Amino acid sequence: xxxxxxxxxxxxxxxxxxxxxxxxxxxxxxxxxxxxxxxxxxxxxxxxxxxxxxxxxxxxxxxxxxxxxxxxxxxxxxxxxxxxxxxxxxxxxxxxxxxxxxxxxxxxxxxxxxxxxxxxxxxxxxxxxxxxxxxxxxxxxxxxxxxxxxxxxxxxxxxxxxxxxxxxxxxxxxxxxxxxxxxxxxxxxxxxxxxxxxxxxxxxxxxxxxxxxxxxxxxxxxxxxxxxxxxxxxxxxxxxxxxxxxxxxxxxxxxxxxxxxxxxxxxxxxxxxxxxxxxxxxxxxxxxxxxxxxxxxxxxxxxxxxxxxxxxxxxxxxxxxxxxxxxxxxxxxxxxxxxxxxxxxxxxxxxxxxxxxxxxxxxxxxxxxxxxxxxxxxxxxxxxxxxxxxxxxxxxxxxxxxxxxxxxxxxxxxxxxxxxxxxxxxxxxxxxxxxxxxxxxxxxxxxxxxxxxxxxxxxxxxx
Length: 463
Fold this sequence. Notes:
Layout: E1 2-7, E2 17-21, E3 26-29, H1 38-41, H2 48-51, E4 56-58, H3 64-67, H4 70-75, E5 82-84, H5 86-116, H6 128-135, E6 138-140, E7 147-150, E8 153-159, E9 167-175, E10 178-184, E11 207-211, H7 222-239, E12 242-246, H8 252-266, E13 274-277, H9 279-289, H10 297-305, H11 308-311, E14 315-317, H12 321-326, E15 334-338, H13 348-355, E16 362-365, H14 374-379, E17 384-387, E18 390-393, E19 397-400, H15 410-418, E20 426-430, H16 434-448, E21 452-453, E22 460-462
Parallel strand pairs: 3-4, 4-5, 5-6, 10-11, 11-20, 12-15, 12-16, 13-14, 13-15, 16-19, 20-21
Antiparallel strand pairs: 1-2, 1-22, 2-3, 7-8, 8-9, 9-10, 17-18
């Protein structure tokens, strides 16, 4: 049996994809897209020999760095079914369609420039047809059921606590007369995060492929971050200012809405208008609202006492561009949740352009800001920024809250592995930059005596 690292190896965080091959079956675990600069994005092509004759694809969760290359399988005429949890199926469909739309728009824009330069037009990585074909092949499986997905291979999905529907995948593989247990952690969430249940404890494995995104550090405690958020909102309301929150559409938007509902119910602040200005976040929120069976007990008790929407009477959904433009005419205090999360695209740019120069505006950064993005410039204290070609003076108050991460920090990663450590599995550390994954590996060796492997991209791991 061999497992080939086709993504999120060699110090890469994105592009998760792992080919499991036995004498009788070929199964792909995750099929993510590489994200970053042109050099990294250039890796987003499969070698046909790696994905031909696939029997099945298994998806840990819906984020693009775990699902974004799925339409390529359709483009390459690889007919394998794709298995995941029900919530992952719904969110993957939403995310892939949005990704195809963005790719098409970006390609059309680039082709207009190429046409003016007398250059040949290019095609997007995937088409809408490819996307719809692969969405039609998504098959939902329940949590915690050992079900056959290929000859000699059964799969079971366990709660990972990272996003709605996220899972660790446990494979039971018949190999030369014995059964091997191989676990892929997927992305693990922090313990005690709002909305979702904590990750499930797993106890048996012959091999573990474990993520290491934050393997070298812990996040600020959530309760401290929430208290800081409450304080900022109270100040902004007193200032009668607008609060702008660049928001990732899936996960972060729903987290912020749940925290706001709690704030209003307890009376930390009086009701004020909130605008969810993101068509994708609106659709993702509907999926979240429809999967209460995945909520943690704290949120279930909260909504048993009173429906959450009764606390959110001033929340307005803004699906159209006209809805978004109308927000400009509404005075503060008010809040806008809009994408993109790194301020590198989307409706948040318009709100920043019209409000960054006002001293009473508060911008709250609640997610990671990539190098070179407008969000990173604001975090780093830029006094002026350029938006849609106009130079904008930054007079608004910029707040950075780092405790809302959906990823487990080092302490929680070690907690997750501690339940597997007694059986001394082969440990393969993936999905992390080299600093974090080697730091986590050193800590695991110190605590449990387990030596980790650090595979490179396209390396084979033999069991």
